[in-house]
Amino acid sequence: MISLNNIYEETRSFAQKYIEPLSEELDRECRFPSEIFEELGKHGYFKLIIPKSEGGLGGGIKENVEVVRAIAESNPSVGLCYMMHNVALSYLLKYGNETIISEVVKDIVENDVFCALSGTEAGSGVHMQNTSFKVDIEGEYAILNGSKHMVTSGGFATWYMTIAPEKTGSDHIINWFVSKNTKGLSFEENGWNGVGMRSNASVPTHYENVKVSVNNAVDASKSETSPISIDTVYFILGLSAVYSGLCWGLFDAANSHAANRKYPDGSSLADVQIVRDHLAKLYCNASSSKALTMEAVNSVENNSDDLAEKVFSSRIVASENAIDSAKYAMRVGGGKAYNRVGQIERMMRDSYAGQVMTPSIDVLKQMLVGSLNSK
To answer: pTM of the prediction?
Structure first.
């Protein structure tokens, strides 16, 4: 069982033992890391942000960022999948009613299960609030009908935070927590074939007359006073942690390759001046990404006036630095990296997800400017 003391170091050890040996295989087979998630459950990671009084570890946004970053240094795709669990859980813990919180938390604590996000639809893409779902209220129950396009961890997670109207015909969009075991919920065969982030295994998910209690409805608008909701904070800072970790993973891989690539005269690739320049760039990208991410974490913990701007900008910088770092790491890795020896080429492909995955860099820049101009 993990502790909150030195959680980054503990998670790096976990990643080196359980994640790194499987990363090449997971990427090649484009499959969900079920065996890794089993170990994450056994080690208590799914309970990270659950209060101690409810059987959890009592962590918060800082601990979540540290864990995600540590995982992503070994495999950004695994970090992304894990991060989404805490996005859903953070939303539930803050805005849910006692009944659904108790049910989900008990399941996580006792059975080591995890959550996923069910948001994007084929017709609306990243505009998840523009949903075509139907929700009919029948007494104490709601009947959900519709389909989601790409649900990461689909079929493996137990609880799905599903974006849908509070009822058919309403423009008010909320989240419904739906158990995998609910009749009418189904998952298609994995059709995911991403350029990178290949362990996400995002699949189409269908809701056909899915019947849930009205207590499973969770609505942030009834209690939200912050400029951005808690799940948005966890989501965007989680992505900042993913791409910050990716930057460090690229630096470590390139630095190791340069040091170990020996010439006949005994010198190494790391002695070549242009390579040293590339390694310096990689280190600066990784350090700046981490620094801004942790600064954003501090702004959240202190409820600073510039909270939203710090959160948005941390993701933008980390994502763009990851792509930039991939370029320099590939130069250092040379023919070996191009021939897919080591993790540089895999992480290069992973880095490109940051510019298109919800919310994309372009959308985030609009959100940042909008927040700046509103003051």
So the answer is: 0.95
